[in-house]
Amino acid sequence: MRARHLALGVRFAAGGGREGWIRTILTAVGVALGVMLLLAAASIPHVLDARQQRGDARTAVEGAKPVARSSATLLYARTETSFRGDAITGALLRPDGPDAPAPPGVRELPHSGEMVVSPALKELLASPEGKLLRERLPFTTVGTIGQPGLTGPGELTYYAGSDTLSTAHGAHRLARFGVGTQPPPLNPMLLVTIIVACVVLLMPVAIFIATAVRFGGERRDRRLAALRLVGADVPMVRWMAAGEALFGAVVGLLLGTVVFLALRQFIGSVTLWDVSAFPGDLTPLPALAALVALAVPLCAVAVTLFALRGVTIEPLGVVRNNAGRRRRLWWRLPVPVTGIALLLLNGRVDRGNGVVNPYLIAGGAVLVLFGITLLLPWVVEAVVARLGGGPVPWQLATRRLQLGSGSAARAVSGITVAVAGAIALQLFFSTIQSDFMKVTGQDPSRAQLSLTLPSGDVATTRKMMAQVRTTEGVRGVIATVEASASRPGPVRKGEAFAPSTQVTVGDCPTLGELAHTGACKDGDVFIVKDNSGLVDDGYLFKTARPGAQVLFNRDPQTEEPDGAPRLWTLPKSARTVDSRKAPSGETAFGIFATPGALDTAVLDHPTAHAMVKTDPAVPDAAEYVRNTAARIDPQMRVITLQNLERDKQYNSVRTGLLVASTATLALIAASMLVTTLEQLRERRRLLSVLVAFGTRRATLGWSVLWQTAVPVVLGLALALVGGAGLGLALLSMAGKTTFDWSVVWPMVATGAGLVLLVTLFSLPPLWRMMRPDGLRTE
Amino acid sequence: MTPAGSLLHASALRKAYGTTPALDGADFSLHAGEVVAVMGPSGSGKSTLLHCLAGIIGPDSGTVHYGNRELTAMSDAERSALRRADFGFVFQFGQLVPELTCLENVALPLRLTGAKRKEAEARSLEWLERLEVDTVAAKRPGEVSGGQGQRVAVARALAGTPRVVFADEPTGALDSLNGERVMTLLTEASRATSAAVVLVTHEARVAAYSDREVVVRDGVAREMVGAV
C-alpha cells in the first residue's frame, strides 16, 4: 500500500505541471551536486591506485647485482629540477643496443640531443613563460609521452637521449622498467587524519543531499493538502510527499552521474596543488558507487518522512504543529558525547605504532558531527527565545526565528558541520605536523641554492665555479672541491683500514663560511676539528697533522694507491680550527686548503659542491642558476635550501585535504544559497505587502541578514566548541597535550565569510522579490 | 495637478502585463474623506488600478496626482515614503506578518515611520480596542480567526492616521457576517479620521458601504450611474 502511495507521489512529481517540475529540478540539481562529489570521493582510491601503478611501471630501480650490458639494456640517469615552483622530473637515456626497453608511454627511445616530453611540459615549453626553461632543456622535442608513462596529465616530465652517459658519471644500467614494490604502510596518525577527513568532508555532502530533497517542500505540502480534501489520510500524503522527493532524488542521481561522467573528460585540464588525474582514473569503486545509488533515494524517502513528523497536512492547509513543542536537550547531547567516548576508546596512536580501528574512529567522528547538527536547532531555539526589542529589521528577524527556527538552523547545519570538522582537523593536523617536519639545519639566509656535481673532474669543477659566479642574479658563491685523503703507508696492526679524512679546497671567504678560520690568505691550510661530535679529534689527527704527508689516491678495496701515489705534505704552519655549520646544514671537517696551497689536479675523484646566494631583486635568479647547472651537466643536483622539510606522506594528505575542503565549501555555499532563496520565495507575497505599505527595502534586507546571521553566529559558536572537542579527543589519542588555538580562527572566519558571500548573492533576488508583482492574484 | 477638490486623481492610465492589457485609459478621482468602491468582474483591472493609485506599481502611461504631487513622476523611495506616511492598506487575506503578534503587526507601520516602540504599541492597542480585537493583541495571526485577522489588518491600515486607505477585497475571505462587521468598522473608523477609502470589491453589498461607485470593465473606469 505504501509503495502505491509512493508511486502516486512519483507520478505527481512527474506530471505535476510547471510547479512540480520546478521543485523536481531544484531537488535534482541539489542532489546531482552532492552525487557528483560522492562519486568523485568514491573514485579517489582508484585515482591513487592508478597513479601508483603508472608510477611503479616507469620506475627504474638498480638491482642488487649490476645488470650486464647487452643489446636489450640501456643506461639511465634520473634528473630533477623545478621551474618557478613546479617540479620537473626527467631522465637521460642511452641505449646499449637496438632492443633496449622504452619506458612506458614512449614508443621510441629518443636519440642523443632529442627528447620526448609530457603534454604539459610540451605546452609549457611552447609558451612564452617557458623561454627560460627551453634554455635548460636544449633538446629537440621528437614526441610526447603517452598516458601509461605519466602519473597525471599535468605532470611535467621528459626523457632525453644522451651519448655521453656512463656508469662512471652516475648512470645505471637497466634491462627493464617497473617495480612491484609495495608502498610503505601509512603512518597511523595520518591514517586517523584521513578517516576523520573523509567523515568531515562527506558529512556536509550528506547534509546537503538531505536538505536538497526538501527543496520546495512547503509548497508541495500545501498542494498535498488538496488531496486530503478528496479523502487521503495523513500517512498517505506523507508517503506521497516521500514519493515526490524520491523522484527528484532519482532524477538528481541520474543527472549527477551524467554530469560527473561528462565533467571527468575535462578533469585533465585542471591541476590542483600539483595533482591532476586522467579521465579514466576517476572511476568510482563499484561497491561505493552502488552504495551511493542506493543511499541517495533511501535518504530522500527517510528525510521526507522524518521532516513531516511535525507537520500535519490538513484538508484546508498545512499546520506546522511543532511550533509549540520545545526542543529537548536530553536526547541530543548524548550523541556527540558518545562520539567523543568512542574516539577515546581507540587508545593511543603515535607516529610509529598504534592500532587504528577505522570503524571506531569514523563512528566517533560521525556521532560528534551528527550530534552538532542535532544540538544546533536546540541552541538556536533556546537563544532566540531570549532575544527581543531592537529596531524593526531585528524585530522581524528574531520574531521569525522564534516562530520557527528549524529551517534557519537546517540552512546553516551544513556550514556548522564543515567548520566544526575543519577546526578539529586543523587542530589535530597543526599539532601533529611537528612530527612530520624535519628541521634541516639549512640556513637560507646565507645561501639559497646548493649545487652538487655527481662526479667531478677538476676542469668541470672550475667551469662550474666560473659559470655560476657570472650567472645573472648570483650575489655570491661558496664553492668547494672535495676529495678524500688518507694516511700514506700500509694498514697498521689493529686497524681495519687506513685512517682517512676529507680534503676541502676553497678560497678564503668560502673556507670562512665552513670553519672558524680567522685571518686567512691564499696559501693557507687549516686542520678543521668536527664540532658536530661525529669524528673525534684523535682519529682526525691520525691523518691530518701539520707537516704530515697524506695520500689522495688510495683504492678503498685494496688499500693500495690506485696508480702512482699522489702525495701531499701539510705545511707546518697549518692551524687547527673549529668547524662551522655550512648554509646547507652540513658540517665539514678535515683538511681545508686554499687553492694556493693545494692544486686540485692532484685530487682523486673530486666532487664539486657550491652554495649560491641569489639576489632577491632578480625574481628568476634561481632559474638562471638551474639553467647554468643544466648547461654544465644535466645531471647536476640543484637543491633549494630551506629550514624545514615536510614528510612526503604528510604533504600528500595535506594536499588532498585542501582539494577536498575546497569542493565541500563550494557545495555548502551552493546549498545555502538555494535554501536562502527557497525561504525568500516562500515569503514573496508577504514581502510585496510589506513593500506596499512603504517598508524600506533596506529594512527588509537587514531583516534577512539578521535572520541568517543569528543562526550562523550560533552555528559557528557551536562549531567552535564541537570542533575543538573533536580535535582535542583526536589529540589525546595522539598523546598530545599542547596545541595551537590560533589555527581555529581562520576556519571560523572562512565560515563567516562564506555566509556573508551567500547573503550578498541572495540580495539581488530579494530585491526582485520585493516588487509589487507578488500582490497580483489574477 | 488634481482637479479642484480632489485628493487623488488619475487620468488616462494604461498598464499591460505582457500582451494582456489591464488598464486601457482609466480615469479616477477621489475626494478627501469619501469612500469610493471600485467594482468589476475578475480580471477587469480593479486591483491594477488600486496598485497604480497607491504608487505600488507605475502605469505604462497616464498620470496619478496626489494633492500637488505627481506620483508617476516620483522615485520608488519617494513613493515608499508617501505610502508610509499618508496611505494605509488592507488586503484580501489580511497579509499580516505571521511571526509578529497582532499588536506588533498594527505597530509596524508606525515603527517604520520612526515612532518609538512603546508609543507605537500604545497607539496600536487603542486601534485594536476600537476594532474590538484587543483580546488577541498578544496572539500571532495564525492563532486568530479570519475575521479577527482582517480587523487587525484594518487597525494596521488606520493606525498611522492615513489620508487614504486602499482596501483590496477586504472581505473576500470572510463570511457575510464577519464581512459586514469588518466593513462597518472600516468605514466608521475611516470617516472618524476623515480618511478617504478606495475599496476594491466585486460584491454589491460591500460596495453599498461606499459613497460612490466606479466600475472597471476592460481596463476602463466608468462612474456608476445612479450611485450615491
In short:
The complex is a heterodimer of chains A (778) and B (228). Chain A is an alpha+beta fold and 778 residues long.
Describe the structure.
The complex is a heterodimer of chains A (778) and B (228). Chain A is of the alpha+beta class and 778 residues long. Chain A is built from 20 helices and 20 strands. Chain A has an 8-stranded mixed β-sheet. Chain A has a 6-stranded mixed β-sheet with strand order 4-3-5-2-1-6. A two-stranded antiparallel ribbon of chain A has the order 7-8. The longest helix of chain A is centred in the first third of the chain and has 42 residues, at 17-58. Chain A is elongated and about 110 Å long. The model of chain A has no long low-confidence stretch (mean pLDDT 81). Chain B has helices at 46-53, 76-86, 102-112, 117-130, 146-159, 176-192, 204-207, and strands spanning 6-17, 20-31, 35-39, 61-66, 69-70, 87-90, 164-168, 196-200, 212-217, 220-223. In chain B, a hairpin with a 2-residue loop joins strand 9 (212-217) and strand 10. Chain B has one domain (6-223): P-loop containing nucleotide triphosphate hydrolases (Rossmann fold). The longest helix of chain B has 17 residues, at 176-192. The model of chain B has no long low-confidence stretch (mean pLDDT 87). Chain B has a 6-stranded mixed β-sheet, sandwiched between helices. A 4-stranded antiparallel β-sheet of chain B has the order 2-1-4-5, with helices on one face. Chain B is built from 7 helices and 10 strands. In chain B, 50% of the residues are buried. At the A-B interface, helix 11 and helix 18 of A face helix 2, strand 6 and helix 3 of B. Chain B: One of its GO terms (molecular function) is transmembrane transporter activity. Chain B: Pfam families: ABC_tran. Chain B: It comes from Streptomyces inhibens. Chain B: Residues 8-228 form the ABC transporter domain. Chain B: One of its GO terms (cellular component) is plasma membrane.
